[in-house]
């Protein structure tokens, strides 16, 4: 029994050791010196999410144009998996790493490892925390906190100083974007319009069906008559919330409703007057500028610390403007 | 779809298939070793960087494998611990919430032991099937991780300690890999050399017989669940140290990856069969595949299709599957069943 | 299941414990009706059914896999999402009829692959369905590109989602009809008898000359068809479909089955119990949301209930045996 176990162990060891040896022999030319740059992009989503699906093509296009060989990973919002992918990326010695943190609080060691290996890092979509800013070259993307704040500004304007009770539908529990948007919204209404109060909040998990059910339940819970408005953290969920209102026989038009996204689902709701305001988030801008910023860093050009995606407020007034044409 | 190659082996001559079956059945790790060999050869030809950058690959293996090692102790006894991933998350949050790092580690590890004890209480004292008891704990502990953390990541007070922990200590080897190796050696010695550990096999093989032979079954079960809880908490502590923060959503892929590593390595979910070495082999195979696919820049959905296919192939090529196919084919040929299949 | 004569006190205890889920559900509904404002209103009952219907339809189907002694079908998450995406995406481009046919073909494929691997090849159900989840979700995301699909606002899928039957959504009726049909299948047919006896004693059933492998394929096929219907219900409810739908349906459905009192050892259980388990969890979650309780506490409550329900059941059974 024990002898056999040793045999198995030896076989395992032999297999792995052979791998290392053989690889060691042929590894002299592992990183070929061909022209162009190699870049690793560590993303937490890709073709598995609607946003990532429209984020990737412009990114790849921009990379092809700039002669960048892009290797993209997708950690599916698992911080441990992304950390491991970061180790892989650092070991591959690319010219640069583009990072979209899965969980912003956890990327410090990855940034330190890249710095130790002399690999510059640029950040896309979700920024690192202020304490880590010195470890990155630049950030491009939306300001997720700012989006929540901008949506709150629309809400404040609509409420016009009158006492307004609203319901809040958040993103997936524990998700960085969900946390930041919620905080941005809450901070802003507290500062700008304390007359707006959140009567109840629940996660809608970025889903239309979940959002519809929890909104309906919150309406029952606080009493539909007391609700004058709804904020949802994205357009998919706000569409569910509006359906919940209609299903209870409540006309959504008089209510103050805001969200974030201006997607193909949200834009028609703006035009029909059911959704009062949303914040345009361009996934293609995001993907493209991730590479544009990276290219500047690679070429040694100077870059701004932050390249924020313009948080364009979309209301009935500009819903048809080509500048805010919905992308997904 | 993957069943065709195996089916063709079915009606082979009894002589050869008997020898094949005997060879396969002698040890439980063959399947895992065969897979590992294929994986090593394939990654060597396509992505040799997996091996030149071996500290990274070992790190990934340790990430997948640590929880699986503890889980194997429970599976060997024919039980299951579905709460490992939630235990990992709770332990991380507990550790990060305590300002003093050393105290945090101790409390988090104790929490893991306590969770194991609670699981064992429901299984041993109350008499609930471990699959259900730990399913309940999966929900309870996940909820607890959210409640304790306020549904947000918790940053460690002493971030420098975390970063220092992530640095290599022996050559390019990080503490994570070292701890993984130590846990592996410890558990391997425990289940092969220590009497209490060897009795795990008896408990999983035939519980009544084990009882009749005077083995304290209940005490062994408690030991197993506490081991599993402790190792899961240890993984939570390591993750939190390395990331400098605890994420309450952590471990989303840990549970199923751990079970997969054990099964690929030949550990039988019915208990009594398998080994710690097998789980190591399973974790090595999965880790190398994942790092190889990541380095090659294969997009994640294709990676999933690939890993799923490998897993399906691994599980349907179990010796028991061969026997089942042979049995089915034989009874089919002898016309015991006349009707057309549904 | 017949049992020998027992002391009457213990007998009563066992009688109660065997019907635990009926009493638990009745008590919870009575509590909610008395103490939670607006719980008894057509709007709120509709919400409870919106929670219960999709996962409930999956759970009543998956009961067959659990009773056959094969733990669970993890791939239901992939199956529900695939059915929903196929229904909306294909009907947008090629019509509703073709969409339903395509979804049906995919459901049959899932059922056959899972069933053959578990039934004929005797592979472990957890790992088989885990691998089909990986492959299935991978293919879905590869082909759909992870996009959100939505049907036209005046399309037939949307219209189905809006249909009401005696004030309740059509999905509630689908849940009830599915439960009735599957309860009949499990309780009154030869196939149902085989599955129950197979789960309780595999070897004996096999020795009796029953093709146990084919019974397992049947159990997985029923689960797959139920998951397809659940996907349709979810798609019709929101008129949208995306590959990330139905997260948590795997262990969520299993939790409902177990709370209902079906044994994971196989053999014991019923479809009606599963329905009650689903209603119990849905009412509980509804009450917690109505009381503005956060997500973390909701999860803890569900977990604690699983352990509590099964503990009471087990302890009562032990007491009755003494």
TrEMBL record, chain A:
Subcellular location: Cell envelope
SUPFAM superfamilies: Periplasmic binding protein-like I
Keyword Signal: yes
GO molecular function, one term: carbohydrate binding
Alphabetical list of PANTHER family matching this protein: D-ALLOSE-BINDING PERIPLASMIC PROTEIN-RELATED (PTHR46847)
Family per similarity comment: Belongs to the bacterial solute-binding protein 2 family.
Protein name: LacI family transcriptional regulator
UniProtKB/TrEMBL annotation, chain B:
Highest taxon above the source species: Bacteria
Family matches, as CDD domains: TM_PBP1_transp_AraH_like
Compartments, record wording: Cell membrane
GO cellular component, one term: plasma membrane
InterPro entries for the chain: ABC_transp_permease (IPR001851)
GO molecular function, one term: transmembrane transporter activity
Membrane topology label: Multi-pass membrane protein
Coarse class of the protein's main subcellular location: membrane
Pfam entry (one): BPD_transp_2
Keywords of the record: Cell membrane, Membrane, Transmembrane, Transmembrane helix
Transmembrane feature ranges: 33-54, 61-78, 98-124, 131-149, 169-191, 221-238, 250-269, 276-298, 304-326
Protein name as annotated: ABC transporter permease
Source organism per UniProt: Micromonospora zingiberis
Source taxonomy: Bacteria, Bacillati, Actinomycetota, Actinomycetes, Micromonosporales
Automatic annotation (TrEMBL), chain C:
Chief localisation class: membrane
TM stretches of this protein: 20-40, 52-72, 84-113, 125-150, 170-195, 215-237, 249-267, 274-291, 297-316
Domain of life assignment: Bacteria
InterPro entries, per the entry: ABC_transp_permease (IPR001851)
GO CC terms in record: plasma membrane
Keywords (A to Z) from UniProt: Cell membrane, Membrane, Transmembrane, Transmembrane helix
Membrane topology: Multi-pass membrane protein
Location relative to the cell: Cell membrane
Pfam family for this entry, one: BPD_transp_2
GO MF annotation list: transmembrane transporter activity
Protein name: ABC transporter permease
């Amino acid at each position: 029994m024990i002898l056999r176990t040793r045999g198995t162990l030896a076989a395992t060891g032999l297999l792995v050791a052979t791998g290392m040896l053989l690889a060691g022999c042929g590894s002299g030319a592992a990183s070929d010196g061909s022209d162009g740059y190699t870049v690793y992009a560590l993303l937490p989503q890709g073709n598995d999410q609607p946003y990532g699906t429209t984020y990737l093509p412009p990114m790849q296009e921009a990379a092809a144009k700039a002669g960048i060989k892009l290797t993209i990973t997708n950690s599916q919002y698992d911080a441990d998996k992304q950390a491991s992918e970061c180790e892989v990326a650092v070991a591959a010695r690319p010219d640069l790493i583009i990072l979209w943190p899965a969980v912003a609080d956890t990327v410090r060691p990855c940034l330190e490892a890249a710095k130790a290996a002399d690999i510059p890092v640029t950040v896309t979509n979700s920024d690192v925390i202020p304490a880590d800013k010195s470890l990155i070259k630049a950030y491009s993307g939306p300001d997720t906190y700012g989006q929540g704040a901008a949506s709150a500004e629309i809400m404040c304007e609509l409420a016009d100083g009158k006492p307004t009770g609203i319901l809040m539908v958040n993103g997936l529990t524990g998700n960085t974007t969900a946390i930041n948007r919620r905080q941005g919204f809450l901070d802003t209404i507290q500062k700008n319009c304390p007359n707006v109060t959140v009567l109840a909040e629940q996660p809608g998990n970025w889903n239309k069906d979940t959002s519809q059910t929890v909104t309906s339940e919150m309406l029952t819970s606080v009493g539909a008559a007391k609700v004058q408005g709804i904020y949802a953290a994205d357009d998919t969920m706000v569409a569910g919330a509006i359906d919940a209102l209609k299903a209870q026989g409540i006309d959504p038009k008089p209510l103050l409703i805001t969200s974030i996204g201006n997607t193909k689902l949200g834009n028609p709701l703006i035009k029909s007057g059911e959704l009062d305001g949303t914040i345009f988030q361009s996934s293609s801008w995001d993907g493209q500028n991730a590479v544009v910023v990276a290219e500047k860093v690679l070429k040694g050009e100077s870059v701004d610390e932050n390249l924020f995606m313009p948080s364009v407020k979309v209301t009935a007034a500009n819903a048809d403007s080509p500048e805010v044409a919905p992308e997904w | 779809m993957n069943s065709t190659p195996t089916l063709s082996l079915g009606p082979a001559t009894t002589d050869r298939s008997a020898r094949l079956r005997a060879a396969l059945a002698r040890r439980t790790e063959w399947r895992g070793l065969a897979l590992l060999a294929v994986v090593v050869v394939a990654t060597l030809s396509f992505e040799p960087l997996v091996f030149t950058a071996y500290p990274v690959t070992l790190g990934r293996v340790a990430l997948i494998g640590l929880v699986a090692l503890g889980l194997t102790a429970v599976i060997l006894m024919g039980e299951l611990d579905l709460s490992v991933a939630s235990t990992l998350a709770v332990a991380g949050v507990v550790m990060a919430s305590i300002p003093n790092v050393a105290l945090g580690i101790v409390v988090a590890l104790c929490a893991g032991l306590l969770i194991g004890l609670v699981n064992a209480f429901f299984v041993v004292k109350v008499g609930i099937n471990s699959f259900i008891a730990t399913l309940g704990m999966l929900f309870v502990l996940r909820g607890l991780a959210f409640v304790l953390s306020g549904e947000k990541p918790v940053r460690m007070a002493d971030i420098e300690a975390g970063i220092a922990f992530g640095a290599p200590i022996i050559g390019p080897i990080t503490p994570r890999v070292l701890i993984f190796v130590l846990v592996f050696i410890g558990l391997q010695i425990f289940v092969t050399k220590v009497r209490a550990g060897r009795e795990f096999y008896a408990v999983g093989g035939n519980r009544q017989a084990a009882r009749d032979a005077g083995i304290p079954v209940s005490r062994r079960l408690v030991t197993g669940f506490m081991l599993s809880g402790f190792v899961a908490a240890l993984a939570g502590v390591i993750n939190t140290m390395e990331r400098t923060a605890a994420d309450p959503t952590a471990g989303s892929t840990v549970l199923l990856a751990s079970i997969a590593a054990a099964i690929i390595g030949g550990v039988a979910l019915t208990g009594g069969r398998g080994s710690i070495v097998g789980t190591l082999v399973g974790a090595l195979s999965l880790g190398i595949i994942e790092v190889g696919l990541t380095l090659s820049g294969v997009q994640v959905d294709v990676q999933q299709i690939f890993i799923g296919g490998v897993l399906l192939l691994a599980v349907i090529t179990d010796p028991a599957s061969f026997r089942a196919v042979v049995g089915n084919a034989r009874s089919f040929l002898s016309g015991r069943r006349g009707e057309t299949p549904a | 299941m017949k049992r020998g004569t027992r002391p009457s006190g213990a007998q009563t205890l066992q009688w109660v414990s065997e019907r635990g889920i009926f009493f638990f559900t009745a008590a919870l509904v009575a509590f909610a009706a008395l103490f939670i404002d607006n719980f008894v209103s057509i709007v709120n009952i509709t919400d409870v059914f919106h929670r219960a219907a999709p996962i409930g339809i999956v759970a009543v189907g998956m009961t067959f896999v659990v009773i056959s002694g094969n733990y669970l079908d993890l791939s239901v998450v992939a199956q529900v999402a695939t059915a929903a995406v196929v229904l909306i995406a294909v009907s947008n481009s090629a019509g509703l009829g073709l969409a339903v046919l395509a979804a049906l073909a995919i459901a049959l494929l899932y059922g056959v692959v899972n069933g053959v691997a578990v039934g004929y090849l005797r592979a472990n159900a957890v790992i088989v369905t885990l691998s089909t989840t990986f492959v299935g979700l991978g293919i879905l995301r590869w082909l759909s590109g992870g996009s959100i699909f939505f049907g036209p606002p005046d399309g037939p899928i949307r219209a189905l989602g809006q249909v009401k039957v005696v004030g309740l959504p059509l999905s509630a009726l689908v849940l009830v009809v599915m439960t009735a049909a599957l309860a009949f299948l499990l309780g009154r047919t030869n196939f149902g008898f085989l599955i129950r006896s197979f789960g309780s004693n595999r070897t004996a059933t096999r020795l009796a000359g029953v093709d146990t492998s084919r019974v397992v394929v049947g159990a997985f096929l029923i689960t797959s068809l139920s998951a397809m219907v659940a996907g349709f219900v979810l798609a019709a409810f929101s008129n949208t479909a995306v590959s990330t739908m139905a997260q948590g349906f795997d262990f969520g459905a299993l939790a409902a089955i177990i709370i209902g009192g079906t044994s994971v050892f196989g053999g014991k259980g019923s479809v009606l119990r599963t329905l009650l388990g689903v209603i119990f969890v849905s009412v509980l979650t509804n009450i917690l949301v109505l009381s503005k309780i956060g997500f973390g506490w909701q999860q803890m409550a569900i977990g604690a209930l699983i352990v509590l329900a099964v503990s009471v059941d087990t302890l009562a059974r032990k007491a009755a045996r003494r």
